[in-house]
């Protein structure tokens, strides 16, 4: 047994919050608030919704990549169409990707409807885990620890009552709280990160701080990283910096500011114990928490700026021109595409005006665009709006998905 579990106070994860916000963190919060609003208002809602679907797939790719799993965008697209690979290993990766897409889409839907529960509450975190694993086969829920093997239950914290033999968990050099203390630690976590009692600045800090502290507790036998990233996505929405899902924290965490290994290194730095009397009053290092929060927020700002550059009108239309050329479409197609980018959607009857072509010819141009998949509508005769299947994304956003195409 590692440590004395009878003397394991929940204050072990303190400090949970940054009470005196350093100037550099305050500057990052201001940048995130302003630049996320600009990104949110950059595009009309139908276009933003199509791009949010694209970013959700990207978030899934990078979240899986952090776990050491490579699921290219084409495999994610196939999974969403329930077209699973015959190879069991590839199929399992597709199932993981499909689950991530489904859960994040539900988070986004709940936020849009004003029904998103507090993302740092224990019930919400349990729901995230349960939803992610609900359709997983046994081999994706099986936990192997030495000579012990058991099936993890979706939506259940580690529990000594459920698994006495495997209660001690190690994550590298870190020793999370014991199974018998997880519930108490999560109650403390929920109290300390109650978003209802926070202003937006503290919510933005919580997006980063709670991300680390949840992983420090390691409340589940598996899936902690995915749950923490989905939780941070939900906190960003709650804090008003989610920009309708037009940016992804997972891409930033997977790539880092300079090298991919930064995420792990910064998480380990935030694990450090308090060093001296100048390093806060908690069990863990206040300076380590501040450094992690500052890094996390800088990563978020970097991703918002990256997305803003991609979703700029000039960038988007220029790359749509490349798509039109590659597909051998009528050059007048750009009149329709530019109309849709500006307005978000276009009634089919507006094709002659948008292209400057006779009605019959304009209908043929519109039909050809729809056939490529770059335009679609909710109903057979409804207005058309942009879509971004893989073959469109390859041309329109090559920087976004270069390494995700597979």
TrEMBL record:
Ranges in coiled-coil conformation: none
Pfam families given in the database record: Fic
InterPro entries: Fido, Fido-like_dom_sf, Fido_containing
Domain Fido as annotated: residue spans: 120-298
Organism, as annotated: Magnetospirillum sulfuroxidans
Lineage: Bacteria, Pseudomonadati, Pseudomonadota, Alphaproteobacteria, Rhodospirillales
Protein name per its UniProtKB record: Fic family protein
Gene3D superfamilies tied to this protein: Fido-like domain
PANTHER family given in the database record: FIDO DOMAIN-CONTAINING PROTEIN, FIDO DOMAIN-CONTAINING PROTEIN DDB_G0283145
